[in-house]
Design goal:
Shape: elongated
Radius of gyration: 27 Å
Low-confidence stretches: 1-21
Oligomer: single chain
Mean pLDDT: 83
Strand content: 5-15%
Distance between the termini: 11 Å
Number of helices: 26
Length: about 650
């Protein structure tokens, strides 16, 4: 890694930046906002989840369409939502926030920062990184799956639309990715009302059929029906679980988006609005299939669209399409946020990050991620052609990430919160059994398409771990030949001419002399009146308190050692920070300040530490990383880069 890049999370002390960030707005307003952003993925599940549970999977025939199986599936859907979403995420995991932030990386940073037993942090880091890799796989499949499932409803308006389903889905998705660079602040204000209307529509459609069979409510709430389902079908019921889990896809988004809205608004909107509306729709689909006036075998192929009355079919399908676009937008925005966190925490190379909102720091756009996601999403749509084919690929990424969250939660309960074993073990056991059951059911679908997210996740995991490992090896190599800054300052004052102005030399390590400073005095034989060796450290907290932002050590004779601290969700704008800091002998004038960067060229060598192919991969990532000048917002006309070669 170049010497200008931010420090990894474990370099921080962890005690800086106390105090989370508040959420502006009333509880009701935040709850409606959460409905528009957080619940898009899980909200679009009724379009396909119930249908796919009764479909055949590979060589395993579909389950029968009769009251025993309908009630069993509905009970399984309800109790999955209660255990996975309500109990696991809303009531338990969302309490494990990192200064108000959630998500696998935030949880990982929390464990890494507060865990007393450092022996366990390395395996947890790998698990957290793999969960991150699986999220990227999910980010590719969710837009393809949700938009395809909604456009498929157009064939119920006119059979001639069927040939245009895939081209229309491709066009919608292309347009969605194309507008990302303009930001979503203005459009985002409509997300809440649209999703609120969508959930109300789900509930109304379901209620129309539930009133014709009110006993279906008690049958759904009765967990015994889920048990009977397994007693009746055994292995086929286990396979069907791989589709039942589609009803809870998006549950991890509740935790990942907690920093935007807070735990209470998300919990309130889930329990008061989203959960009742979803279950009413699922029960309505079940009542429709069991209705004596319908052909169950025909209706089960697409119960959601067939439950819509003819007179409102078109507006409801358009509303469902809008909901799937919003769900896709939430996942894309989540990929941007996750990438930003991963860059700050040292798992991904620097990338160009554009801020699309002057008022909201979370509104960002990352071109590389956007176009990479778009290409993969369009490839998935064109390869699988239908939402039923994509369903086989959908569950593995989600269930894998959920299972990893359970393991990380175990570390939180036992290591951080110090729960007694009698209290923590039963809770973790319930979550783990449910997660493993769903993961196992989805692993059966690997030959039918489940290999796609696993392949994507494995590839991204390799990139993340290669970058993290390569940075550590490069730092270690550079540290071996570094000179203590105190010794350098004393010897340099007698061997170089001093010139007016300020020179800031960026250094990845808080110790030693950066190579740019050594090269400068070796070749130019001059030093500025004020020489600052600066290191940027990213702490394991979302934001760092302003009073903890700058640390300075005066080394004498105009030499200073400066450390700037940022949280993993903050913008690393060095000129802005320096303008507000009166340290190192006075104010900073950008027109009289020069920034010297060290640019390393990596030479892959057969040295212990990393396989040669991974060293070459790391070298490629290093060459294609965004420049430190862009990442740290340095003025283009005040930057000097000095290069060197490094072997690892």
């Amino acid at each position: 890694m170049t010497s200008t890049t931010a420090q990894p999370a474990d370099s921080g002390t962890g005690h800086h930046g106390e105090g989370g960030h508040g959420h502006r707005g009333s509880l009701a307003a935040l709850s409606i906002g959460a409905i528009g952003v957080v619940f898009g993925d899980i909200g679009t599940s009724p379009l396909y989840a119930f249908r796919e549970t009764f479909a055949s999977h590979g060589d395993v025939p579909g389950i029968q369409v009769d009251p025993v199986h309908i009630f069993g599936v509905l009970s399984l859907v309800f109790w999955s939502m209660m255990i996975v979403v309500t109990f696991k995420y809303v009531l338990t995991i969302m309490r494990a926030d990192n200064k108000g932030e959630g998500g696998s990386l935030a949880l990982l940073a929390l464990i890494n920062r507060k865990s007393a037993d450092r022996r366990w942090t390395a395996p947890f880091v790998l698990l957290g990184v793999f969960a991150t890799a699986l999220f990227y796989g999910d980010s590719m499949i969710t837009p393809a799956m949700s938009v395809l499932s909604a456009t498929e409803g157009l064939k119920y308006i006119h059979p001639g639309f069927e040939q245009y389903i895939v081209p229309l889905a491709v066009g919608i998705l292309f347009a969605l990715f194309a507008i990302q660079s303009r930001g979503t602040e203005k459009v985002g204000k409509l997300f809440g009302p649209i999703m609120l209307t969508y959930f109300a529509t789900l509930a109304t459609l379901g209620l129309m059929y539930v009133v014709t069979m009110p006993e279906i409510i008690l049958q759904t709430l009765n967990p015994w029906n889920a048990i009977v389902f397994f007693q009746t079908d055994g292995f086929r019921a286990f396979v069907a679980m791989g589709s039942v889990v589609l009803a809870v896809t998006g549950a991890e988004a509740l935790y990942a988006d907690m920093g935007h809205f807070g735990r209470k608004p998300i919990g309130l909107s889930w329990t008061a609005i989203v959960l009742p509306c979803l279950m009413l729709n699922y029960m309505g689909q079940g009542a429709l299939v069991l209705s004596p006036e319908t052909d169950a075998a025909a209706v089960i192929k697409d119960p959601f669209f067939l439950m819509i009355p003819d007179m409102v079919r078109l507006p409801v399908i358009i509303l469902a399409l809008l909901a799937t676009i919003i769900a896709s937008q939430a996942v894309i925005s989540g990929a941007f946020s996750l990438t930003r966190q991963a860059i700050q925490l040292g798992f991904i190379p620097r990338m160009q990050i554009k801020f699309t909102s002057a008022s909201t720091s979370g509104q960002i756009y990352i071109p590389v991620v956007n176009w990479g996601l778009m290409i993969m999403v369009l490839v998935l749509v064109l390869f699988f052609q239908s939402s039923s084919n994509l369903a086989a690929a959908y569950g593995i990424a989600v269930t894998g990430a959920m299972f990893i969250d359970t393991i990380l939660l175990a570390a939180v309960l036992l290591s951080l919160w110090r729960w007694p074993l009698w209290k923590a073990v039963p809770l973790i056991a319930v979550f783990a059994v449910v997660d493993m059951a769903y993961l196992g059911a989805n692993l059966i679908k690997v030959p039918d398409g489940g290999w796609v997210p696993l392949l994507m996740g494995g590839f991204i995991f390799t990139l993340l771990t290669t970058w993290s490992r390569g940075r550590k090896l490069m730092r270690a190599t550079m540290a071996e030949g570094s000179m203590p800054i105190e010794i350098f300052a004393k010897s340099a004052k007698n061997n170089a001419q001093r010139v007016p102005g300020t020179a800031v030399f960026m250094s990845s390590s808080p110790q030693g002399v950066p190579s740019a400073l050594l090269h400068n005095i070796k070749h130019n034989k001059v030093l500025h009146e004020r020489v600052i060796v600066m290191t940027v450290i990213i702490d394991d907290v979302p934001q760092v308190a302003e009073e903890c932002r700058v640390e300075v050590r005066d080394l004498g004779d105009g030499f200073y050692r400066m450390v700037l601290r940022y949280g993993f969700l903050e913008d690393t704008d060095i000129p802005d920070t320096l303008k507000r800091a009166e340290v190192c002998g006075g104010k900073f004038e950008m027109m009289h300040t020069s920034f010297f960067l060290s640019r390393q060229t990596l030479i892959a060598a057969k040295k212990p530490g990393m396989a040669l192919w991974r060293e070459k991969l790391f070298a490629w990532m290093l060459r294609n990383a965004a420049t430190a000048m862009e990442f740290f917002k340095l003025p283009t006309n005040r930057v000097v880069e000095l290069g060197s070669q490094v072997e690892i």
